Amino acid sequence: MGKTKHTGPIKLPAKPDPKLWVSKVPFGMGKIKPKHIRETAKIAWQNRDNLPYAYRILTQGVCDGCALGVSGLYDQTLAGPHLCTTRLNVLRLNTMPAIREDILHADIEELSRLGSTELRQLGRIPYPLIRRQGERRFSRATWDEALDLVAAKMRATNPKQTAFYLTARGITNESYYVAAKVARLLGTNNIDNASRICHSPSKTALKRSVGVGASTCNYKDWIGTDVLVFWGSVAANNQPVSTKYMYAAKRKGTKIIVINPYYEPSMEKYWIPSIAESALFGTKLCDDVYQVNIGGDIAFMNGVMKVWFEMEEREPGSAIDHAFVQAHTHGLEQLRAHVAQQDWTTLEQSSGLTRERMREFAELLARAASAVFVWSMGLTQHRFGTDNISQVANLALLRGFLGREHCGLMPIRGHSGVQGSGEMGADPFSLPGGEISSAADRSRIEQLWGFGLPRWQGDIVGVTLENALLPEEQERKLRMFYTSGGNFLETMPDPAFVREALTSIDVRVHQDIILNTSTLLDAREAVVVLPAMTRYEQPGGGTSTSTERMVYFSPEIAGPRIGEARAEWAIYADLARRVKPEAAEQLGCGSAEAIRAEIALAAPSYNGIQHLHERGDVFQYGGAWLCEDGVCPTPDGRAALLPIELPELRKPEGHFAVTTRRGKQFNSMIYSDTDPFNDADRYDVLIHPGDAGALSLHDGDAIVVYNSYGSMHGRVKRADVKSGNIEVHWPEGNSLIPKGVYEQYAGIPEYNTAVIVEKAETYHAYKDTRYIEKRIEELETEVE
After folding, report:
1. What is the pLDDT of residues 727-780, one digit of tens each?
2. What is the pLDDT of residue 453?
3. Could you tell me which residue ranges the Molybdopterin dinucleotide-binding domain spans (predicted)?
């Protein structure tokens, strides 16, 4: 942990810089871009029935959108107000009224005709609901009826057949902590959270490379660093306020580099609404884009290091920071030998980049005195995601870009709640402030909590779903599944399998603020729906942890309350007392303040959370920079340089690598059928013009994308995507992704695979023959 403290927000330059302008045409008129003013007016209209409350949420609460960490309208990076359409779109979840009773209790078939967007727009869940097997509609229940049903099932069920899951939907550290404690009190280690499908490899890789599981630096370090690299991250779309930080960085002379298979328009230029100059004329963001193959990042990085070692042979010290490496790392010679045996032909084929392009990037970093590496799901959602991140760490360590100003490793979070989930112990591998595999951590937590922890390893959420389909006699056959938010039908690979798994569970509990398509699925015994409060409604307020490890206090905000909704942590505590009334005293967790006091004891890095109780209260755990001055919290104080093997990319000749991307959405919540940055429809398939031409495809042509796992009907959209690769929207393209393929260290599902692209008329013309089946068999043979 570092000793230097964050110094607070800085001011933007007062004078404009026309060199950064995209166009002199005001507001980007005539260009494909977000219409921020129109969008803001639309959102104000949606919230017209609750505008005073909406205003208080925006000005007093901590943003429940991405994890940049905006408290009210202000953050710790830049002076001045910040507001983005992502936060505004999420706002309606907090201000809308309850679902009308006639709709809520409609026939389940009628409700099931609605998609998740339509269900979300119905309003909030006002009171507990139960739907037993064979019933065609939800019945209203009291809290006692609902929780007693769940508690009775839990008492009758082997703890190994019970699982908890928490999404990142505005959930606070307090709720994660209580859920983690309750799960262990009830005897199960089957508890997981949304980071399993986004950044779990980041934590795993950073732990093994530098000994920490979070961002080592701050957003302020972007501003003035020599090079800012976005790796598989479209921050302009997913964390829009970050464009303001990019603007500030550009004004300081920072070079911004994007590494991605698709040349994302939003990372090239952006009209930042909270900066007058940018709102009028736009801002050129990135200086260069390196278009790698899907999964080609490890080869690219091996190529960069190969260039560095070649430079070192000619001129020692020209590429590697030897003083840093010798003092603060181990494994240099093994890494050097590993990279030396890589041949350029293989690296070029795997990465999709030429040796010359790899050299350009290598020389750029070699000349830089500082750099910050930022990444997201483009690196993590692979079966080799942990290796991807350790490879990024290798680059930073060889150049000494760690533990000092304007340097660092940053897994940028897409949701304000998710950073704290594992740190609070809501994870099958984690405990508050530690790891479940550590005897010392287990002993420490058992002493604090006053009860023993289950000794068996819990399952990740993907395996939990698979366990629902185990034979009846199996010890881990999933019978009770308790989820706080989340919709696996729209977030996990192979939706058909997910549907089968969810309907095979005895009792399914959905603790949520809204309905979604998974809530409506049948269960073998009962579906129980429990109405939760938002973070702004919870008595005693709550805290969340940002990407840069800022722990923010979000106060309870005066306003309307929805029916019988309860604080998430309070529901967990009530359930535990019903399942094990004899353990009520051990549980504690009677108030938000008491929970924060306990967190400070359970997770040492969170010491200080107990003092957060007023609007605007915040502290940063670990100081400004983790691994400050290169000293890592590892047994020997050193970081590990790790030889990383090239992954097998498994793309047979004549097939395309496919990955998923986000459009106008927040996680799986879609807010528009059209992407404002490239005008793509949700079912548009982004394909290189040359690849489209080779298949005689034109814009708008109906196509089928398919493989042995599933198919997707879409339309051609020629775009600047790397040749040999295509991109489809998530979750629309999840039917193409195989189930049961997980990253070996962190357990994240694989979200990339190989597919065939074919004209729809050809696909359907031959559908009654062996043509399609034969092509799928060919793919399976070639892949395996």
Report:
1. 999 999 999 999 999 999 999 999 999 999 999 988 877 765 555 666 666 655
2. 97
3. 658-754
* Burial status of residue 55 (CB atoms within 10 A of its CB: 0-12, 13-18, 19 or more): middle
Element (H, E) at 533: none
The predicted pLDDT at position 784 comes to: 37
Give the DSSP letter of residue 597. H
Residue 494 is encoded by which pair of tokens?
Answer: 């192979």
User: Shortest CA distance to 662 belongs to which of 651, 675, 647, 643?
Assistant: 675
DSSP string, 667-682: TTEE--SB-TTT--BT
- Report d(CA 697, CA 718) in Å as an integer: 9
Q: What's 169's DSSP letter? A: S
Name the token pair of 481. 């599944």
End-to-end alpha carbon distance in the chain: 45
Q: How far apart are CA 101 and CA 90, in angstroms?
A: 24
pTM above 0.85, yes or no: yes
Provide the token pair at 552: 């923010």
For strands 162-166 and 480-484, give the pairing: parallel
Residue 219 CB neighbour total at 10 angstroms: 30
Q: Facing residues of 257 across strands? A: 229, 288
Contact (CB, 8 A) for 309 and 278: no
8 A C-beta contact, residue 324 and residue 404:
no
Pairing verdict, β 725-729 and 684-687: antiparallel
Q: How far is CA 416 from CA 238, 445, 548, 784, in A?
A: 12, 26, 11, 40
Residue 110 exposed, middle or buried by CB count within 10 Å (0-12, 13-18, 19+) = exposed
Query: How far is 249 from 255, CA to CA, in rounded Å?
Result: 8
**pLDDT less than 50: residues of the chain:** 782-784
Q: Give the span between the Cα atoms of 238 and 235, in whole angstroms.
A: 5
Give me the pLDDT at residue 126, please. 98
The Cα 207–Cα 435 span in angstroms is: 11
Q: At what angle do helices 143-155 and 568-579 cross, to 10 degrees?
A: 50
How many Cα atoms within 13 Å fall on the side-chain side of residue 405? 7
What are the tens digits of pLDDT across the range 220-242? 999 999 999 999 999 988 888 99
d(Cα 733, Cα 713) in Å, to the nearest integer?
9
**How many angstroms separate the CA atoms of 699 and 702, rounded?**
9
C-beta neighbour count of 702 within 10 angstroms: 15
The Cα angle at residue 535 between residues 534 and 536, in degrees rounded to 5: 90
Q: Could you tell me the two tokens for 696?
A: 């005689």
Candidates 465, 32, 63, 401; CA nearest to 222 is 401
> What is the rounded distance in angstroms from the CA atom of residue 337 to the CA atom of residue 65?
44
Q: Are 120 and 516 in contact (CB under 8 A)?
A: yes
Spatial CA neighbour of 410 closest among 371, 382, 381: 371
pLDDT given at position 242: 94
d(CA 267, CA 287): 10
25 contacts: CB under 8 Å, gap ≥ 6 = 31, 281
If we measure between CA atoms, which residue out of 681, 744, 690 comes closest to residue 713?
681
Q: In this structure, are residues 467 and 476 in contact, taking their beta carbons and an 8 Å threshold? A: yes
Is there a contact between 704 and 247 (Cβ–Cβ < 8 Å)?
Answer: no
Q: Pick from 405, 411, 399, 335: which is nearest to 373 by CA?
A: 411
